Amino acid sequence: MTDSPPWTWPWLLATSLSRAALAALVCLGLWGAVPLAIGWHPTTVSSGSMLPRLQVGDVAVSRPLGAAPPAVGSVLLFDDPDHPGRLRLHRFVRIDDDGMLVTRGDANTGDDSTPVALTAVRGIATLRVPWVALPVVWLRERSWLPLGLTVLGLLGLLAVAARSRSFGFPDDEETEDDPGSQVPPPAVGGDAGLSGPDELATPRPPNPARTGGGPTTGSAPVTRRVRQLGVVGVVALLGCVSAAPADAAFTDRTTTSAVLVAATYFKCANAVTAGVPSLWYRMDETSATATAATDSSTYARTGTYSSAGRTAGTSRACVRDTGRAMTFDGSSGSLSSPALSGAAPNTFTIGIWFRTTTTRGGKIIGFGNASSGLSGVYDRHLYLTDTGIVVFGMFPGTVKTLASPTSYNDGGWHQTMATLSSAGMRLYVDGKLLGSDPSVTTGDSINPAYLRIGSDNLNGWPYPISSYSFAGTLDDAVLYPTALTAAQVAAQYEAGTN
Fold this sequence. Notes:
Blueprint: H1 8-33, E1 41-44, E2 59-63, E3 75-79, E4 87-95, E5 101-104, E6 121-129, H2 134-141, H3 144-161, H4 219-241, E7 250-253, E8 259-262, H5 268-274, E9 279-281, E10 292-293, E11 303-305, E12 310-314, E13 325-329, E14 335-336, E15 348-355, E16 362-368, E17 378-384, E18 389-394, E19 400-407, E20 414-421, E21 424-429, E22 432-437, E23 450-453, E24 471-480, H6 486-497
């Protein structure tokens, strides 16, 4: 027996670690896929608002409901009543007067707006499988870099793991563990007992596994086993994540002691479209001279930028969304929608993300009767004061305002939303309700009505305002024909920050 060259031991360590990593992947895949055989339901987690206890890319497995009704406090997988064809994972909190199940995401401040029938429940969340669906999430989000690196890493593991256990030993070296390479010694004896050449011991033919400088005996079976291991792992992972994703993650402690997490949306885009906006300017345009602003709602009402006073292509507010934001100079920069159908609405939600350090105030978003310049009638708007206070103003015959208690001109991203309905006017900043007035249910008559962003008249409105134009960066200006709930507003903010 000859000693192994010292450089074979790093390869031995590398192959061992690679095979261990592949075995771990196979186990994770089987952990999520095997429950399919008994009728359990794996679901890809695509929301991260309850990180770090449940990561985006985890798989949650739900067991069938069975004959017994679910217990209050359990986490249910059910058909989303607000979005046909989707699934939702939320906590069951109570039964309403009509016998329907009331659910709530742990990240939400209020119950879900639509109760759920027992027949819509798919199962009870029971098991969490970490990380295995991350490639699926990356594929859906078109995140090609992490997906490509993962594929390359997996191929590298397979390549290293398939190496022979005696990689690096020269062909002419023999070991005690390879009996096929040993040649028996000739028979030993004197003249007595040696009668001729037929009495000589016949050497064993060489081991074909070592022919041509290949690896030692056992290499081919080991390589086949590693390849089979890789195939089994890929199949298990695909089976584990093949089910439709849930649009909300969840949190609860089940009878298996697995911790499950609840959340709403992973991206701002998902949160915005869930409310069905009537206008949505993402401000992703990268040209500072083009004046067309794409409306990403289903109505495609293309807006118009001012020809100057803005900088395109700055970093956007929502970190997981693609696209950019628009910076306005506080002087001539602005954006306007086309004329809306009919007069300015008395049931609506307006919202926008902003970032600024200005001390001159300015109009952020609101309604006016002119598409450019200064409107003669202007109302239903959000504006910033010189000290950075956010104000929601209405004019039902007299000035009515709601103001934030603190300033937001600190250079960070903030989201502000305002609603008007029969329940009154409400002001939100960063997902929190900061003020309400149930006595205000209508505003001034504005017809034609334009949604003005970044600049418009503020003459006569309270608080010190040195400029009608906003100086800072704006993103995701949105108008809804309904008054969003506090839970929906909070979900939009969380989608951009968690």
